[in-house]
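Structure first, sequence second, as always.
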């Protein structure tokens, strides 16, 4: 499906005529022949990410580009049916979502569940980056559904394997052929969505093993961990 170019610091996925959707820093829809995953150096502090990626690639990319502190030699992929996934995984800045505390009938919880300081907009390059490609054409709405399916599978896998729902800098990119018509749905009940869930789960598990072996870090002990805190006022609309 994709042609891959990989070094320690760059993984490029190439397929002409691909319609992409990304929730990364340069997110949104784009039609381009390639997407990129770039490894940043230790201590990376730049915030002009568009300029940085152009410097790294030698030109301004037309397709989505993600950044991570993980070596691209630790990337892992999985394929099933119409779906192919490629993942890099680092957990230096995990995000945890504790269960909501029970409250009275008003539905208002008390207290602050956070035990670590939130890091705001700071960039921590641990990051789980997920690329999912479909050989089956999808509408823009179907591509958005595929992104949601991939994010759900990422969160479920991380919760099971590492005890967190993600990191504070995760990003997901999905792509499909850029044609006039395509499937409008890519949720978990569709063949494409089912394959995406399987591929994200398996590629992410393999990427975690490549980076950490059998010794995954405890997200509660991470220096840059963020715990979602507080509660909302629940209402009946």
């Amino acid at each position: 499906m994709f042609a891959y170019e990989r070094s320690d610091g760059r993984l490029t996925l190439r397929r002409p005529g691909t319609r992409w959707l990304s929730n990364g820093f340069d997110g949104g829809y784009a039609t381009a022949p390639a997407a990129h995953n770039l490894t940043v150096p230790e201590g990376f502090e730049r915030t002009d990410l568009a300029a940085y990626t152009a410097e790294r690639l030698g030109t301004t990319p037309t397709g989505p580009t993600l950044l991570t502190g993980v070596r691209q030699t630790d990337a892992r992929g999985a394929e099933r049916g119409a779906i192919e996934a490629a993942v890099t995984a680092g957990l230096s800045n995990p995000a945890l979502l504790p269960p909501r505390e029970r409250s009275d009938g008003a539905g208002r919880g008390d207290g602050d569940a956070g035990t670590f300081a939130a890091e705001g907009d700071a960039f921590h390059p641990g990051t789980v980056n997920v690329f999912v490609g479909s050989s089956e054409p999808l509408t823009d709405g179907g591509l958005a559904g595929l992104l949601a399916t991939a994010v759900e599978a990422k969160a479920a896998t991380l919760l099971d394997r590492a005890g967190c729902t993600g990191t504070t800098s995760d990003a997901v990119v999905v792509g499909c052929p850029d044609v006039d018509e395509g499937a409008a749905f890519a949720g978990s009940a569709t063949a494409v969505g089912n394959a995406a869930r399987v591929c994200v789960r398996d590629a992410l598990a393999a990427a975690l093993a490549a980076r950490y072996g059998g010794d995954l870090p405890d997200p509660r002990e991470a220096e840059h961990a963020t715990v979602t805190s507080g509660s909302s006022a629940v209402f009946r609309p």
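Margin note: Helices lie at 49-57, 140-162, 191-212.
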